[in-house]
Design brief:
CATH class of the largest domain in chain A: Mainly Alpha
Order of helices and strands of chain A: HHHHHHHHHHEHEEHHEHEEHHHHHHHH
Shape of chain A: elongated
Oligomer: homodimer
Largest interface: A-B, 113 and 113 residues
Number of helices of chain A: 22
CATH architecture of the largest domain in chain A: Orthogonal Bundle
Low-confidence stretches of chain A: 1-13, 148-152
Distance between the termini of chain A: 67 Å
Helix content of chain A: 55-70%
């Protein structure tokens, strides 16, 4: 365990990269800077390259200008753009001043893209060749492009005079080819590209589908703009899944690691949804009040309210998470809603039948085991009560399943995020209707005997 | 839209790769084979390389032996191993017979690993060099290694006589280096490796942390076994997130795309959890029955049961999803439970206070708006009733938050998957305790006036 926050430890610079990494989430900015400066330069570089853009920006802004310049120059343009985006507006210009003219221009191009589209993910530095070069010329040309700090890229892209992408050749293919062959004869021309404005989630799906290590980014005119690599996509896929999971749980996306989100910020991400759910939940008060007379006549019905409505919520939360995830993976499109509807009606009825039978069994078993002689309605009509409960569960489970399965489609149709069909929202929506179903079934089945 | 299932269409081979991709999820095996055979060979290869291991195995087993052999040989050993694992046991030997001796040996090594550990993900084919070669010798050696169908790998790994990994050099670095330099002087020796038995989720975290395109896999003696590449990790990260999301929704992991899971299999993934939740939910029946007398005296209390217990479930599902995801990302370890406990007690109290105040306000507003003169208890004691409801909500919300935050830690401590602390499970657990808190607060506050 690291205790970087005690003076004793700081006076004694035995801080390793592992210690600092361990303590990072709980350190304030000052503590991080202190710890960072006690590392060897190799360790500092290791830690610096692992940091998120937000942490990098925070750390950089606390360092003296000379060190800022040094660290900024260690970053490729795509990471630079992320750091600048994470820094306060008023600091951005000062940080940009540390860069050389060419890098500043590249970084400014990237800053024009939103960080969740292909243009914001891409690296604008990549190896370029012309189709009519020979392989030997190409290798010589690449060897002379000894520009420092280019991110490791393993493909060279073949562009025509207008920078339109013609094909791609791996360094390996170049090395294996005959020296006098033309690049155009060695290159692969049937290649996957993405438009610069494609959403990062869609870019992630393309990487998953094609198992590629790099995909070139082109603008509307087919001119190559940069390269997105699979290592960046690993981060994208993790972030998108994290956002969806947090939304499914009924929170707004946190946008930072759990332990690094301040208390107030955490509160702001969680309270609004809880308030919306609570206010929607008051509809249940109205629903029960509406059936007050029925409840007065058969008090027993109140016992089963939480059990019955929660079975609707549970079925709904299964269905909504399955549909939300299938949409995110590109397995379901809007037009598939009818197919999903049919599947989930059947699933809801089947699952409801199992739970309904279980409900009936539990009431019957309860009657036989407890045999409470004061409990007149249950004594005389336990099969009827059990039937009402069982049948309600079938209805509530089917309804909950459909709400859960179709709400993500409805949200998407409205241009909203399907993941907002969170488990708590689906449960709350099916609670209200669940009560109506429950009491209606009870009235129909029990009127004449208990009502 | 594709209609591959009609005879008319099949007689007329105008099937494109896009048509088949579109119709794939709804086609049976026969339809898929038919569609596949109507593609041009380039299109067939495109589709084949996109398929999941399960679909590849199914398709292959329906093709004649000569075609089986052809397609199997198009696959690298790691994909081959996945296909063989997806095929029925009795077919495995027959498929292995199609491979040449060297590939069969490589594939058998991979089959010995579980598919969710580093050894099961890695490609055993990679470029090897010796540290004392010169750069020119290394390039010549690599050019002679013209083995066909090696997956595109952009690093050469430097091994000693015992196959222990000494360093790595990118093809790019080799091309840029002076021809007479030694490989050992060009290579990077400070590199990230993974043990062959490391879980794929941990491998994914390493890729995310270090932004690498490939990580070498070594055995317990430091001997290199193969390479895991970032494109495979994109799939791993997606699969792991899918599993977690499905578990959070209260389903067992589906292990196949939503539309491709058969009805019966879908039922088997969903019914067991619903049954467990329903049976646990019957505890709520007991809880309400226990407080039957209180409920008889103040019927009004029944109106608020769903609202109050669901606020506990909502808070709990927020907390559990945040903690589950932070654990999966490696942001929280078991020993962090105390820190999480403290944060979530505070969060639960703050969120509960907001909802409690809202509850009190709603009762007061309801009293003023409805002014129902027959509703004696609410008329005379609306502030007391509102207070009881508000205070219960604070308690239920705090308790639900803690259950949600700590259940994933408890599951992990027991060696179970934290993601099993699903939203429905947390809601069900907090329903029972929520009822106890609600009725206890009501008894304490209202005894003497309404009780």
């Amino acid at each position: 365990m690291a205790h970087l926050d005690t003076d004793d430890e700081l006076a004694n610079p035995r801080v390793s990269a592992a210690d600092l990494r361990d303590a990072w989430p709980v350190l304030d900015t000052e503590g991080r800077v202190e710890g960072f400066r006690h590392l060897t330069s190799a360790e500092a570089e290791e830690i610096f390259l692992e940091l998120s853009a937000i942490d990098r920006a925070q750390l950089l802004l606390s360092l003296p200008p000379a060190e800022q310049r040094w660290w900024l120059r260690a970053l490729p343009p795509d990471d630079l753009a992320d750091v600048l985006q994470a820094a306060p507006d008023e600091e951005r210009g000062r940080l940009l001043d540390h860069l050389d003219e060419a890098t500043r221009r590249e970084t400014n191009v990237l800053l024009a893209y939103s960080e969740d589209e292909a243009g914001g993910l891409m690296n604008p530095r990549y190896a370029r060749l012309r189709p009519d070069m020979t392989v030997d010329e190409a290798i010589g040309y690449l060897r002379r492009q000894t520009r420092e700090r280019v991110e490791s890229i393993y493909y060279a892209y073949v562009l025509d005079q207008e920078s339109r992408l013609q094909g791609v050749v791996s360094f390996r293919q170049l090395m294996m080819a005959r020296g006098d062959a033309r690049v155009r004869d060695v290159m692969v021309s049937d290649l996957v590209t993405v438009p610069d404005e494609m959403d990062q989630e869609a870019v992630g799906r393309l990487f998953a589908q094609h198992d590629l290590l790099a995909i070139p980014v082109v603008d509307a005119e087919g001119r190559m703009q940069g390269v997105v690599t699979a290592d960046d996509i690993v981060d994208v896929v993790r972030e998108e899944a994290t956002e969806d999971i947090q939304k499914i749980g009924g929170t707004s996306a946190l946008e930072a690691p759990y332990l690094q989100v301040g208390f107030l910020q955490m509160f702001r991400k969680r309270a609004p949804w809880l308030v919306i759910l609570f206010v929607s939940g008051t509809l249940t008060v109205g629903a029960i009040r509406f059936f007050q007379d029925t409840l007065d006549q058969i008090k027993l019905l109140a016992f089963f309210v939480p059990l019955i409505i929660s079975s609707g919520g549970n079925c709904g939360s299964q269905a909504s998470t399955l549909v939300i995830r299938a949409m995110a993976l590109g397995e379901l499109r809007l037009r598939d809603w009818w197919r999903v509807f049919l599947r989930e009606v059947a699933a809801g009825l089947a699952l409801g039948a199992v739970l309904g039978a279980l409900g009936l069994t539990i009431v019957v078993a309860w009657h036989h085991l407890s045999g409470d002689p004061t409990n007149v309605p249950l004594r005389d009509h336990f099969l009827l009560v059990g039937g009402a409960i069982g049948l309600s569960v079938v209805g509530v489970a089917t309804w909950g399943t459909l709400v859960g399965a179709l709400l993500p489609f409805a949200l998407r149709r409205l241009g909203l995020d399907p993941a907002s069909a969170s488990a708590p929202l689906v449960a709350t929506l099916s609670d209200v209707t669940g009560l109506v179903i429950y009491f209606s079934v009870a009235i129909v089945l029990l009127s004449g005997t208990l009502l």
